[in-house]
Amino acid sequence: MPAANAGTSEINPDQMNKPLHYFFGAVFFTMPFLSQAKSGNEPSYAVNNINKALLTNASAVVRHYDQDVEIVATNEVTNRTHIVLTILNEKGQHYASAIDFFSSLSKIKKMTAAAYDANGDLLYKVKESDYITRTVSPQPGHYDDNKIRYYDFPKGRFPYTIDVYIEKEEQQTFFLPSWTPQESGDIAVENATFTVVTAPDYQLRYKGFHVADAPVIAGTEQRRYSWKIADIAASPEEPLTPESRLSRPCVLLAPTKFEIDDHSGTMTSWSDFGKFIYELNAQRDILPEAEKKKIHALADKLPDNHEKIRVLYKYMQDNFRYVAIEYGIGGIQTLSADFLCNNRYGDCKALSNYMMAMLKEVSIPANVVVISAGETPRMKMQTDFVSSQFNHAILCVPMAKDTVWLECTSTDLPYNYLSDFTQDRNALMVTPNGGVVVHTPVYGVAVNKVVHRATARINDDGSLDVTMNNHYTGTPAVKVFHATTHVSQHELDQYVSNKFKLPGYQVIKSEYKHAEDAAIMTMDETMDISAANMVSRSDSRLFVDADLVPVGIGVPVATETRQNPFFFPSSFAVEDHFEIDLPANETIEFLPEPVTASYTFGSYSCAVKQSGNKLVVTRTLQQNSGVYEASVYADFEAFVDKVNSGNQIKVVLKHQ
Amino acid sequence: MFLRNSIVAMLLLCLGFFSVSAAEKNRFLKDDPESIKQYVLQTQWDIAPKANAIVLFERAVYSISKDAGGFYVTRTVHSVVKILNKDGVDQADVVVPVGFSRTHAVEFKKVKGTTYNVEDGKLVSQSLSPDQIKKDVVRNGVMSERFSLPSVKEGSVIDYSYQIEEDMSSFFSWDFQEDIPKVYSEVVVMYPRILNVGGIAQSIYAFEKFDDTKKNVDDASVPLAYSGSVEALERDDVGMHWVRRNIPAYEKEPYVYNVYNYTEKIDIQVSGIYNGMGNGNRWGTWDKATEYLYKNEACFQSLSKREGFLRDDVERLTKGQPDDLSKVKAIYGFVRDSFECTGHNGIWHANLLDKVYSKRSGSVTELNVLLVKMLRMADLDGNAVLLSTRKHLRLVEEYPLLMRLNYCVCQVKLGDSTYYLDASSKNIPFGVLPMDCYNGYSSVIDRDNSEAVNLDPAMLVEKTIVAVHTTNDELSNYQINGTWSFGWSGSIRYRSQWKKDSMEIKKYVLQEVKKMPIDASLIDYSVKNLDESDKPLVLSINMKLKFSQADHLMISPCMVRSFSENPFKADKRYYPIEMPSAAVMSFILYLKIPKEYKIGSCPESVVYRIDDRNQYRYVIDKNTEQNTIQLRTDFTMKDARFDESKYSQLKSFFNSMIECQQQMLVLQK
Residue ranges of the Transglutaminase-like domain (chain A) (predicted)? Predict the structure, then answer.
């Protein structure tokens, strides 16, 4: 993952650009109210002063969020933030911190904080010795120089108010600060301002979300951009709400000319941006001779380029592992192929770079693709705003008739298959000619699919002997793979025993097969189970629950008209086919009616019929990825009801 | 599996000893490329058929020394791990844990690492280079060290070692059993004779006394668990070592609060210094430990001081109270409602009470000690009780392992009754502690009294009653009322949610309506006792039911079920089953059948038992004349902990209960 604040780079003897520090002269910037945290009583902080409408759905209320950014030079940015936040209740307690990050290319120059009671009377000022400074992520296999400085306010008598001031200096302009006064949906905002000051001729770019356009005051000595919001209510906590700061007021900034750790460039276009990334990472693909020999030994005998890529990708998966080393500019500059060859580990961009180097050795050109990975739409790339938005890298190999995509950090995924971490989104391909926006493969319902095939026999004691042959592909298969591969027997036993939402069942036998050569992630599951409580008997009738593999869906009930949109991150489909042998001397008296439902977000069908001496159930369920308007949610609830009632596959048999 | 706790008695007896240097030599076959190569090529170990990695050898030496700055410990660790598949490679990313060091700078020394692979039939080794070792600031000034070994893949053997010097902590521990299996694991503790060192060894085998200087550890006669004394030839120290061989990884199971209560480990504590100043046994027994804390920890010292600033409040709260119980409730209510809890729950470095009082806020320990103090000032028999909470390691009677203490509550005795109170928790009824506090052995802390207290989770009884009855039996407008009376735990949970946001009540109500086996819609609902922590929370819901027009209807009369599925599904169980509390859950139904239908077949009454304390009764009665059905189900579980040997009985009990709940009532036109 690229570091948000890159520090000193590894030694790069082939610097492409000599650094030019663009100084803007002495920029005098005064913001009289933006100073350190207050030190006395502050009656204006009294909780009674908060507009009552802002208390609804809120765990905390921003009283003031004043941020100013001064772009002094292309290698110097000052960022001052003063936040006054009232914590209303226990749910808001986790927001009660003074916190910021820094690295070798940034410094926290000042951090002050204080706490106030509900009347605005000072409770205490935080002492310098109370702040904690430490490595951000001291976790195994992850190395960088990112640090965090923070103070966690202890729980007080609610409501109480914290007052935090942070002044930070960045020595780079590749990543510019952003403004996010409403950090989360359950925080309301009374007042927030954002001011950016630059030299008169500096070309700042910006993109606002849910804010009015910035008035720009152009002067002879400085140019000033300002934004302001007031009285932003919190939104209710609703299930399936897409979490994205871009759905709340925020402003993103980006430079035109920039500098980072003695490297400079421009990012007015994706082409420029990509060119900079390319040049920063170029010349780092020299493989040692011994390694080249190995690569040729593996690939030369194969006639087809696809086969060459496949065998080299397997070589990478079997011999390399993920360790992130991102000191300084290492967040955006790869480790050399030489380093990787020696250590056999690297992060996403280093592994992608290495894979690219191996393919280059056998004359197959490839490109690193930087991408915003994770659950969409939080991670959606803003293609109309050129800036650094990426947290991952994969490899793209354009071929004559198709394109091969490789996730180089995975030791398990099939060749040319991307997981839902990186599927279906815009990303930036980095080429020698610059950056190009591309879209990663979309795996829809044809790929992300589960097919359940089950047959059953009813025993005299009312139990069912069920045999299942279930076939998983795509994302569902990835989940099954991780649950069943390299786990202890006891873990596997617990997995199979808990997997199906049947009233009670015993697993007689289970087997999992991973189709290693399949084009998409594929798992086959075979299971023999004995299911109890599916059949009830009366004097004259047999009541059979024919849902052999329940696939219910659930969602918390909405109590009010929904306000937020809702989303499904991925598409998938389930197809079921069940057959139950009808006992001799039983006839069908009652079969449930077929049920169907179809909407933009999903569809469902379920039908039960007799076929010879069998009861046959066919069912389909499909979910379509996307973001849907709040007004559609009532339809979704109706859909859920229909699915759950359709899944009541209760058949009545009569004794003859 | 029977885990035994044996006291680590660090006596000065030498029951056969070996020297540190001899120990090292005999341990792992270093400098033996052929053996290492065999380990790289080997793909299976009998004790670990499905492991991702296996520890072939590990050894930790804790050596305590003294210099001008005081006592310090040198911890030397050596590990050799075999990577069995791709999911085991993260064993090669090592984080070296460090304690907080005040008087001695933390020094990492002798960090070494080597990866072994076999390439083209030849053993290949690659060393960790110094620039791959990263020091981190973990918190102000305190460091940790991390490194990742190079060229690690399926089949590799990694060998690493390091040494740390830091302030002596009074507590340290060694886990024999972790999430990967181990062929050999050894811990050595060396210390100057003037230190009083003790602790607990948790293992399934008794540590035999055994001298292994002449044996290869692979030799079948070497026991799976053994120990011996250690003598450092260079200086006048003593110590012991423990070895465990062929240890399987621990298992992950539900209904286990902390698996390390059941894994094999050693916890060591420096409990005193024989320096002629009476400190020889500060913490060697529960009596001594509690006496020490009582006299030396600021907050507990308050209990023996005169605290005039509390006098007025005590008098005001107790004046006019009819009896002692009322006085206790008044004082408890005052501390609970007038003071905020900061959320910190450790027992160490708590403040003196005057500070807590003036800030009107304190940690869990501070607030409960304040409560104890005020009770004592009212001449009531109040005591502070130290305990460990359930996700923490359990305290043991055999030895006072103080690192396990993390919570303090109040005990008050009135005649024959004893109450346990936690003034730091809002919303809980009087006389009930937060569920996590019921974790077995606990200790009163007092100058002269370290009375042991057993806070058994079975002391908590979660009593829930749901009653459903017909309010209108007309088929076209069939209505029922369901009333939920929650147990103390459900009351606490829902009370805190529902008081914060009344919309949460409606959400809960709509969920319950959806769960009804017949198509149900909400008419209205009401809540009682929302603000009265000492009473059960009661929810009443009126619903309309829509019957289909079929000639035959099938309804499960058990409309509200405590368990929709068996919580115990796996075949095997390794560890005891820890339930949150005892429970009594009752469901009562009075159903008037619409006149258009009559009762066809009806389920049978039945009782299932694990034993007399744990059973399920399903009693159903049909009245064909009145066309009514009455059902009462009672799930009673008086025990909150079951030995793993009872697992199959438990599983079968729940299966039977769930099957019984599924029974259908048939109505026909």
Answer: 299-399
Name A515's Cβ contacts closer than 8 Å, sequence gap at least 6.
A522, A523, A524
Interchain CB distance below 8 Å, B152 and A494: no
Q: Which chain A residues are closer than 8 Å to B52 by Cβ?
A: 486
Domain ranges of chain A: 64-263, 272-439, 449-655
Do B334 and B423 contact (CB within 8 A), yes or no?
no
The mean of the pLDDT values for chain B is 89
Of the candidates B144, B514, B663, which has its C-beta nearest A536's C-beta?
A: B663
CB contact A63 to B (< 8 Å): no
pLDDT digits (tens, 9 = 90+) for A248-299: 999 999 999 999 998 999 999 999 999 999 999 999 999 999 999 999 999 9
Which of B50, B54, B81, B546 is the best mutation test for A, with the most CBs of A within 10 A? B50
Query: Inter-chain contact A141–B93, Cβ cutoff 8 Å?
Result: yes
% helix, strand, coil for chain A, step of 5: 20, 40, 45
Average pLDDT (A173-177) is 96
| CA-to-CA separations, A118 to A72, A126, B356, in angstroms, rounded | 39, 18, 19
pLDDT digits (tens, 9 = 90+) for A635-646: 999 999 899 889
Q: Is the CB of A486 less than 8 angstroms away from the CB of B666?
A: no
Residue A630 has pLDDT above 60, yes or no: yes
Please tell me the predicted confidence (pLDDT) of residue B324.
97
Residue span(s) of chain B under CATH 2.60.40.3140 come to: 4-273
Kindly state whether B599 is in contact with chain A, defined as any CB-CB distance less than 8 angstroms: no
The CATH code that applies to domain B286-455 is 3.10.620.30
Question: Are B194 and B273 within 8 A, CB to CB?
Answer: yes
**Cβ–Cβ of A134/B52 closer than 8 Å?**
no
User: What is residue A377's predicted lDDT score, i.e. its pLDDT?
Assistant: 66
CB contact under 8 A, A486 and B146: no
B214-B220-B224 Cα angle (round to 5): 90
Partners of residue B174 on adjacent β-strands: B266
pLDDT in tens, A439-487: 999 999 999 999 999 999 999 888 999 999 999 999 999 999 999 999 9
More confident of the two residues A368 and B666: A368
Query: Does the distance separating the beta carbons of A487 and B662 come in below 8 Å?
Result: no
Say yes or no to pLDDT of A3 above 70.
no
Question: What CATH number belongs to A449-655?
Answer: 2.60.120.1130
Most confident of A455-459, B202-206, B597-601: A455-459
Question: Are the Cβ atoms of B340 and A156 closer than 8 angstroms?
Answer: yes
Name the class of domain A64-263. mainly beta
Residues 6+ apart with CB under 8 A from B556: B517, B661, B662, B663, B664, B665
Show residues of chain A in contact with B117, CB under 8 Å.
none
Residues from chain A that touch B600, judged by Cβ atoms under 8 A, are 538
Domain with CATH 2.60.120.1130 in chain B: 461-668
- Of 1.20.1440.130, 3.10.620.30, 3.40.50.2000, 3.10.120.10, which CATH number belongs to A272-439? 3.10.620.30
- Among A256, A197, A203, A205, which residue's Cα sits nearest to residue A222? A197
Q: Per CATH, which fold does B461-668 belong to?
A: Jelly Rolls (2.60.120)
B140 pLDDT tier (thresholds 50, 70, 90): low
Element at A433 (helix H, strand E)? none
Nearest CA among B373, B398, B399 for reference residue B384: B373
CATH topology of domain B4-273: Immunoglobulin-like (2.60.40)
Contacts of B669 in chain A (CB under 8 A): none
Inter-chain touch B148–A140, beta carbons under 8 Å: yes
